[in-house]
Design brief:
493 residues; alpha+beta; 21% strand
């Protein structure tokens, strides 16, 4: 009997434990830095940023490969035709005769662009075979080696301009990747404090409900003894009902905020998150001059400004080059031969030369060339003015953010002290009310001030940390470590 009793007791305890585990999911405690790390590593936004980074990298690789030697193989194997073709006779008549032939060709070309001039040099080798099936004839033609040059004259050199602009675009993309990661930190901080404030409100609501319920029970005893008025008793009962409604709303707000944070940082596990209050703030005074210097050095804006001015200059150069005298030079020198067999075409090849200069120049365009050039010049001037204004706005944004950070850091000490004083004052007011020395109105005022001070402290922490990470994003500089923020994992593939 003793064994059965112990067994039954253990079974009941195990069942209750399992029921409690199912009813109440496990709690995971997270700090602000842990949430930011999770968001930067596994969130959907982090994956999008990483994909964008890889995209920019491969665009850069594609650009660089275009300036390296290119080896290509081209050909037609086969080009068979069987048809009836009109043939002009010596007397001028037309006769339709059946023809059946195959024409195949194969070529290997090595080319290299010349970015300073916009031209291209190439070396190619060609071979052609012609089969006439009606007459059972086979002919070969070849160019064993041809060296050539294609060079635009007086034209817009896109190769040269692209070689100056593309490296800036790639540097921008690397800066953009770091900025996007810091923006993830800013957004994660916002969601962190949304949930933290919701949890604080839930805690306040639970404590208020418990306190009001205790006070109401005490008040009922005083009322029965005739030591409390009906009005005060009803006021306490109303406070209990309001506290119950506030707790239900706080629980809903906490669930909503938790869902938003979990979805953003990519947490799929079913457990409750308990956030820590990040009270240890960086004790770093930030000078506006330092922040502005680092922002200009680290952010993509300085590169972007230069790149946009270069693009505007490029469009002006294109307008001048495309609307004036355009000429092109083509020259080639090589070997050529023909024969009835494959070996015949490589025995004693003849020289082959070719040279061509073509040009075009507008004579009468009714002011079209001048209009296009003027539009490009005005657009370049507009870009210059826009960039100048954006530089001013950027500097102002950095200085404003620094001032806000320093102000919020100093404000935290005040709100923290107010929170402690309000909590202590409420406890004194509660004890004083229980012995009947203050009214319920004074107690409610102390309770409201306690809750307001607690929320104000959490709000000041939220504003400070958001300003801290916003300043990091705006400068790409870690003021605690006094180092520039760079990508932790360089992309090398």
């Amino acid at each position: 009997m003793n064994f059965r009793s112990v067994y039954c007791l253990l079974f009941v305890c195990f069942a209750l434990f399992c029921r409690q585990s199912i009813a109440q999911p496990a709690t995971r405690q997270l700090s602000l830095q842990e949430v930011i790390t999770l968001a930067q590593e596994q969130s959907t936004e982090a994956k999008r940023v990483e994909t964008s980074r890889e995209n920019s990298y491969w665009k850069w690789r594609s650009f660089r490969s275009g300036y390296l030697p290119q080896l290509s193989l081209q050909g037609t194997l086969p080009d068979f035709s069987r048809t009836i073709t009109p043939v002009t006779q010596p007397d001028g008549n037309i006769e339709f005769r059946p023809v059946s032939y195959n024409n195949s060709d194969l070529g290997l070309t090595l080319s290299q662009v010349i970015s300073p001039t916009g031209g291209r040099v190439f070396v190619t080798s060609l071979m052609q075979r012609f089969d006439d099936f009606d007459r059972s004839q086979t002919r070969y033609n070849s160019n064993p080696a041809i060296i050539g040059l294609e060079q635009p004259l007086f034209a817009y050199n896109s190769l040269s301009w692209t070689k100056r602009i593309e490296p800036l675009l790639f540097e921008e993309s690397k800066k953009q990747f770091v900025e996007d990661r810091e923006q993830i930190a800013v957004r994660a901080t916002e969601l962190y404090f949304d949930l933290l404030l919701a949890q604080v409100n839930q805690s306040i609501a639970s404590k208020n409900l418990a306190n009001n319920d205790t006070l109401y029970k005490v008040a009922q005893e005083k009322y029965q003894l005739g030591r409390l008025s009906k009005n005060d008793l009803l006021q306490l009962r109303l406070a209990v009902l309001n506290a119950d409604l506030a707790q239900a709303q706080a629980a809903l707000d906490e669930q909503t905020a938790a869902l938003a944070l979990n979805n953003y940082i990519g947490i799929k596990d079913q457990y409750r998150i308990n956030l820590l209050v990040p009270e240890a703030i960086p004790m770093v005074d930030i000078l506006p001059e330092l922040a502005l210097t680092e922002a200009k050095k680290n952010r993509k804006e300085s590169i972007s400004f230069r790149r946009r001015l270069l693009e505007a200059e490029s469009q002006v150069a294109k307008a001048h080059g495309d609307n004036g005298l355009n000429a092109s030079l083509f020259a080639s020198f090589g070997l050529t031969d023909r024969g009835e067999t494959f070996s015949d075409i490589y025995r004693q090849p003849d020289n082959q030369q070719r040279a061509r200069i073509g040009f075009s120049m507008p004579i009468l365009d009714w002011g079209r060339q001048r209009s296009i050039t003027k539009v490009a010049e005005l657009n370049a001037q507009l870009v210059e003015y826009t960039v100048s204004q954006e530089e001013t706005n950027f500097e102002q944004a950095v200085i404003t953010q620094v001032n806000q950070y320093n102000m919020l850091r100093n404000r935290i000490k005040t709100t923290a002290e107010a929170d402690a004083i309000a909590a202590e004052r409420y406890q004194i007011a509660k004890n004083t009310y229980l012995i009947g020395r203050i009214s319920i109105t004074d107690l409610n005022i102390a309770s409201a001030e306690k809750d307001q001070a607690r929320r104000a402290y959490i709000a000041s922490l939220s504003e400070f940390w958001e300003a801290f990470y916003s300043l990091r994003q705006l400068t790409l500089y870690d003021f605690e470590k006094q180092l520039a923020i760079v990508a932790e994992t360089p992309l090398t593939k």
